[in-house]
Amino acid sequence: MAGNRKMIYMSLLVACGVALHLVENLIPVPFPVPGAKLGLANIISLLAIALYGTKEGLQVNILRCLIGALMGGSMSSLLYSLSGAVSSTLMMGMAYRYFKNIFSLVGISIIGGVTHNIAQVTVASLVLSTFGLYSYLPFLMVVGLLTGIFTGFAAVFTRDNLAVNLSRLETTGKKEMKP
Amino acid sequence: MLKRGDKILIASILLFAVAIFTGFQIYGFSGGRTYAVIEVDGRQYQKISLGSDGPKLQLKVPGVQGELILEIDRDRVRVVSADCPDKDCVRQGWASRPGQMLVCLPNRVVVKIESDRSSGELDGVSF
Asked: For residues B91, B93, B97 and B100, what is the CA-based torsion angle, rounded to 10 degrees?
């Protein structure tokens, strides 16, 4: 039972992630730095890490990237988003596991945002074989910092609400089961 | 809601970004030399090496119709005056980055800024 419940919640997270991924593609980027975006789907990977753990976070995030690319993206965008997602999820998972006392979810989200952008620049400069792209790195780091703060706060609010509602769901579920 | 570690993290990332940025500004990323290539009527007339140790001079270039006076100031070039009716080349101002161009159509004079690195800066990247 518990396994099924976890699987359902994780697939709900993937679905939310895909939706955010697609919505994010529709938002125009106000500044001309390539690769800068809001990273709304980061909220979902943070939640998966906070609720379940690094492995589950990775599963949710990779699935989200694959489905998102199938529904609206290209092979190259898949490459960029997958590399960013995997590295940022790994970093966030490690930070959550070992430095939970030092950083709040906001700090972990910042780590994820910045790592995501660094990984993307690295992959992009490997693909295009020009290391001149690294001159964008300072801007992308600041962008990652700001979007990380934003998605971090969003994740904190979502987690707190979700924790209340999930526990309510579980207790009502149990009450209905008993008789 | 922010913990102390978060604030330290934010400050250190900002510092790091500023450090990388100033590093790039000071040392420059391309590292390669830039040249001003002057072409008259499609043929190369002169190639001048630019940079912080570049020359500071004025140069007369014979065009097809008349004469142009170029000014080279270390790492940038401009057209000071030209024997043409529209003076578009004068109005283009300074050129210093690889890929920039000063053009005088009536005199068929083109001043291109080139870099010795084959692939210079990217025009755009699609994600």
From this structure: 20
Question: Quick check: is B120 in a domain?
Answer: no
In a domain, A179, yes or no: no
B56 and B42 share a domain? yes
DSSP character string of A10-41: HHHHHHHHHHHHHHHHHSPPSS--TT----TH
Q: Indicate whether A112 pLDDT > 50.
A: yes
Q: How many CA atoms lie within 13 A of B30 on its CB side?
A: 15
Query: Is residue A38 domain-resident?
Result: yes
Q: Are residues B44 and B93 in the same domain?
A: yes
pLDDT surpassing 50 at residue A178: no
Q: Beta strand B67-73 with B56-62: parallel, antiparallel or unpaired?
A: antiparallel
ipTM confidence score: 0.75
Q: Does the beta-carbon distance from B122 to A142 stay under 8 Å?
A: no
At B23-39, the pLDDT tens digits run 877 765 555 677 888 88
A111/B9 CB distance under 8 A: yes
Which of A34, A110, A137 has its CB closest to that of B10? A110
B31 interface with A at CB cutoff 8 Å: no
Would the pLDDT of A1 be above 80?
A: no
Min Cα separation A136/chain B (Å): 9
Q: Is B113 exposed, middle or buried (0-12, 13-18, 19+ CB in 10 A)?
A: buried
Q: What is the pLDDT of residues A49-91, one digit of tens each?
A: 988 889 999 999 999 999 988 988 778 788 888 998 999 999 9
Average pLDDT, chain B: 80
Domain that holds residue B12: 1-30
